[in-house]
Design a protein that fits this description.
It is built from 4 helices and no strands. With 268 residues, the protein is mostly loops.
Length: 268
């Protein structure tokens, strides 16, 4: 490469070193040290977070954007409308917290506990929520293009939530919810938008999916036993090796005869 112009050499080197935007969008942890202080420590105490939340107003919500709140016990706090954009909340407990209308865009919430929390109407765009526990949480009406791989969402309320692919941001890779290997047993996803969501090997047992948009849902290997898809749009949904035993409402769903790999799904 000695004989190439300097600018060309620099461009080639950059291409070799810097991963593509699409790759980074798919795996944000690949090039980070998840054991670093930035990902494991907090710069506030629970008391300080609570004081800031109590001083917040509708016009000036509590702002924790880009701050470190890793590992804190913030369970039960009223953090309605708070800003957590790009904040670090890895391993943080927000059990039973009031978080309606909060913003968690690009936040790090790996292994956080959101069980029973009220997250209605929240924005969770490109949030990293792998291994999160959110059993019984209220995520109704939320914008949830987050990575929820291996998350536990048993009995959660995701009615009217939008998990679909953001087709306006394709330059950054497909921004959509990732539910691969997530547990949504008994969850309410009625009216939710799951179009083009990645949900391979996810559990939707006994889930309510009535009226949901599941068009081109990537559900290979997923478990839909006892799930109700009445009135749902299931056109182009990939059900290769999926368990459709006892799922209800296929005859009243849209595009049921257009399922992808339908002959490879388990129905008995």
């Amino acid at each position: 490469m000695r004989n190439l112009p300097t600018l060309v050499v620099a461009c080639v080197a950059a291409a070799l070193i810097v991963p593509s935007a699409a790759t980074k969008a798919q795996d944000m942890t690949r090039y980070l040290d998840m054991s670093s202080p930035d990902m494991t420590t907090a710069e506030f105490t629970r008391a300080e977070v609570e004081a800031l939340a109590k001083a917040a107003t509708a016009d000036q919500p509590a702002d924790f954007s880009a701050r470190r709140l890793n590992g804190l016990d913030l369970s039960g706090l009223d953090l309605t409308g708070a800003l957590f954009t790009a904040a670090k909340l890895n391993g943080t407990s927000l059990r039973d917290a009031s978080l309606a209308g909060a913003r968690f865009d690009q936040a790090w919430m790996i292994k956080a506990d959101l069980s029973g929390a009220d997250l209605a109407g929240t924005s969770l765009f490109q949030a990293q929520m792998m291994d999160v526990r959110a059993d019984g949480a209220n995520l109704s009406g939320s914008r949830l293009t987050a990575d929820l791989s291996r998350a536990s969402l048993k009995g959660a309320n995701l009615s009217g939530a939008d998990l679909s692919a953001d087709m306006k941001n394709q330059s950054m890779g497909m921004m959509r919810a990732v539910l691969n290997s997530a547990n949504l047993t008994g969850a309410d996803l009625s009216g939710a938008n799951l179009s083009r969501v990645a949900a391979e090997f996810a559990k939707f047992r006994d889930a309510r999916l009535t009226g949901a948009n599941m068009m081109q849902l990537e559900a290979a290997g997923a478990d839909f036993q006892g799930a109700d898809v009445t009135g749902a749009n299931i056109m182009g949904m990939d059900v290769k090796s999926a368990r459709l035993v006892g799922w209800m409402g296929e005859d009243k769903a849209m595009g049921g005869d257009m399922l992808k790999h339908a002959n490879e799904a388990f129905r008995k």
